[in-house]
Design a protein that fits this description.
CATH class of the largest domain: Mainly Alpha
Number of domains: 3
Number of helices: 19
Distance between the termini: 113 Å
Shape: elongated
Number of strands: 2
């Protein structure tokens, strides 16, 4: 078969076939009497092999090595191609993400495009100082891409930078609450904690709704942050979680402070006192937890808390009894 017919049947141009021949990839098995290249069936099969390998991303040099070495192991080459492809996809994905973020900022000109690019580069810097400066930079006419800020908040491990990023996200005015809520479902505990911390600092009402949902989260740390935030905002549904925190000794002082805020409402104060008394009498509540619960009654007004302190001042646990007696004196003003 002559080169023109091979080109038509294989889809490989005559020029490319000559290039393959110059590289030694495929050589026509014969020549016609007038000197034209003549390809055999085996030659054509080799051409199709070359084209198949090209679709996998192999260079012509790699193809030549694969076809010319009888002992060649394709598994090693395929594994290397997988690695290269993943690296290329990662680079392209990062570029696509950056372009989408620039597009979302709706830049009016190249100056704004460059500003956004500079901001994104600073957020991704290995320097903590650079990341913090980017977060604390004054807001100008170009809004910061909210999804980039959320991503930075959820991945930041440096405490000072993390605080600056949460502040920047809270003042961005562009939402981000839904993205932070997705972070609550992360398999990584540290990411879940960063997400709930950021939600606690968000000013919008949607963030409060997300925090209410987080009161039922399986992660105790997430529940705790949500309860502390909502408790100081007067959300009475946080009472059970706050009492749990006192029993478990997790941010128990902050939890007691939040209960004291909630106790400003008489009905809620009685609910708190009833819950605390119930946990005091639970057989699984250890001695240290009983002392903490007794201390928590200090700022809870109402008859239930007062009666509880009277009874606790005669408790068999001396530490509990002394604590309750001291708190009674404070309440009585004596």
């Amino acid at each position: 078969m002559l080169i023109g017919e091979v080109a038509r049947r294989s889809g490989v141009s005559a020029r490319m076939l000559r290039h393959y021949e110059s590289l030694g990839l495929v050589r026509p098995s014969g020549r016609t009497g007038t000197g034209y290249r003549e390809y055999s069936g085996e030659d054509i099969r080799r051409i199709f092999h070359i084209e198949s390998l090209r679709t996998l991303g192999l260079s012509l040099r790699e193809i030549g090595r694969a076809l010319g070495d009888p002992g060649f192991q394709p598994s090693a080459l395929v594994a290397d191609l997988i690695r290269q492809t993943r690296e290329r996809i990662a680079v392209e994905t990062e570029l696509l993400t950056r372009l989408c973020r620039i597009d979302a900022a709706e830049p009016a000109g190249w100056e704004e495009v460059l500003h956004t690019v500079s901001f994104l580069q600073a957020l991704g810097s290995k320097s903590a100082d650079a990341r913090q400066r980017a977060a604390l930079a004054p807001v100008d006419s170009v809004p910061a891409p909210v999804d980039a800020l959320v991503e930075a908040v959820l991945s930041e491990t440096e405490p000072n930078v993390a605080g600056a990023l949460r502040w920047a996200l809270a003042r961005s005015g562009g939402g981000g609450t839904a993205l932070l809520a997705e972070g609550l479902d992360s398999p990584v505990a540290a990411v879940r904690q960063r997400a709930v911390q950021a939600l606690a600092e968000m000013p919008d009402g949607e963030a409060s709704a997300r925090l209410r949902d987080a009161l039922a989260h399986p992660d105790a740390v997430v529940r705790g942050y949500a309860a502390l935030t909502l408790g100081t905002r007067g959300v009475a549904d946080t009472v059970p979680t706050l009492i749990d925190m006192i029993v478990e000794g997790r941010n128990d002082t902050d939890a007691a402070d939040a209960l004291s805020v909630l106790a400003g409402d008489i009905a809620t104060a009685e609910r708190i006192a009833t819950g605390v008394v119930g946990r005091l009498g639970h057989e699984d509540t250890g001695a240290p937890a009983r002392v903490r619960l007794t201390q928590a009654l200090a700022d809870i007004p109402g008859p239930t808390a007062s009666r509880a302190l009277v009874e606790l001042s005669h408790d068999d646990d001396r530490a509990v009894a002394l604590t309750a007696a001291y708190l009674r004196q404070l309440r009585d003003g004596s």
